[in-house]
Amino acid sequence: MASLATHVYTYSYHPFATKFHKRIDLFNESATAFSAFCLVIFSDFLTNAEVKYEFGWMIVYLLYSVLTLNISFIIVFAVLTFIKNRRLKKLREQRLKEKKEAMK
Asked: Which residue ranges make up each domain of the chain?
C-alpha cells in the first residue's frame, strides 16, 4: 500500500529533476513491492519447503541486483561530479591567473 502511494506521488508531483531519476525510483519501488508481495509465499499458505527456498533466493537476487545497480549509479555520479568540479576549479584558477596578469 505504501509503495502504491509512493508511485502515485512520484507521477503526480514529479519530485525528481530528470526522467532518469524518476525511472530509478520506479525501478526501486517496483522491486521492493514485488519482494513484499513474494513474502506471502513464506507463510503457511504454501507448505512446500523447496519452493520457499527457491523463492527466497529469487528475492535475494532481486534485492542484490537493486543494491548493485544503485551503488553503481552512486559511484558513476560521484566520479562525474568530481571531474566536473575539478574542471571548474581549473577554469577558476585560469581566470584568476589571467586577471592577475591583466592587472600588471
From this structure: 2-103
